[in-house]
Amino acid sequence: MITITGDTHGGFQRFDREYFPASETMSREDYVIVCGDFGIWDETKESNDQLDWLEERPFTTLFIDGNHENFDLLNRYPVSQWHGGCVHQVREHILHLMRGQVFEIDGITFFTMGGGMSHDIRSGILEPDDPEFRWKKHLLDISKAPYRINHVSWWREEMPNESEYETALRSLSKAEWKVDCILTHCAPDSIITRLSPRYRPDRLTGFLEMVKEKCMFDYWLFGHYHDNMVIDERFILLWEQMVQLTF
């Protein structure tokens, strides 16, 4: 069984048996996949307890990264090969599906490309070592302006780098530009313009548009936009909804 859902932001309540009764018959060979903004934030006891709780659930948890992740922490986890692609091993049964990979799980091929541009940074990124940091933060707080703090609540690595784009192209070329499913956090240009005019195209969504035009696939599942919606039958936007993948 492969179940896919949207952003969890470090809150894994939806995987409790009360809300996910199907989990009681699952095993480690069954998978739950999160489409980004999984919630790797810090190393506090609370965060570790949440991950330990999820590790104890009977299934294997897989996730791609979103824009709201602590990439300093995420990139410290060990990298290994798993089902044909590279993963960060957060726990024995919690794996980060890295960018630009092709995995084969139960005979189904998945292309993964996490990352996304934050939309809540219109008032800028503050640098903690700025001599005026406290004053700037105070002004932004009292005006309730959307901002982030570098290496605290925002990371440049939220967007793919050149190496990750190149890895993605090599992986898709090796797969002859044909996979069963594409898993991303954000969506291609032509899809986001149908969601809302406030979402602006960027380099990643443009890259995904190229993939959309060139790659053969059956389903494309993504998160990021905090809604549940099916677009043109093949594009599935997920937030709190959980869907079982069947072929």
Walk me through what this model shows.
The structure is a single chain. With 247 residues, the chain is of the alpha/beta class. The chain folds into 2 domains: 199 residues, 4-Layer Sandwich (Purple Acid Phosphatase, chain A, domain 2); 35 residues, no CATH class. Helix content is 23%, strand content 25%. The protein is built from 6 helices and 15 strands. The strands form 3 sheets. Strands 4-5-6-3-2-1-15 form a 7-stranded mixed sheet. A 6-stranded mixed sheet has the order 7-8-11-12-14-13. The longest helix has 13 residues. The radius of gyration is 18 Å and the shape is globular. The N and C termini lie close together (11 Å).
Outline the low-pLDDT stretches: none
| Number of E-type strands | 15
The portion of residues forming beta strands comes to 25-35%
Give the name of the CATH architecture of the largest domain. 4-Layer Sandwich
Which word captures the global form? globular
Helix content: 10-25%
The average pLDDT is 96
CATH topology of the largest domain: Purple Acid Phosphatase, chain A, domain 2
Distance between the termini: 11 Å
- The count of helical stretches stands at 6
CATH C-level category of the largest domain: Alpha Beta
Structural class label = alpha/beta
Domains counted in the coordinates: how many?
2
Oligomer: single chain
Strand order of the largest sheet: 4-5-6-3-2-1-15
SSE arrangement, N to C: EEHEHEEEEEEHEHEHHEEEE
Gyration radius (Cα, Å) is 18 Å
Largest beta-sheet details? 7 strands, mixed
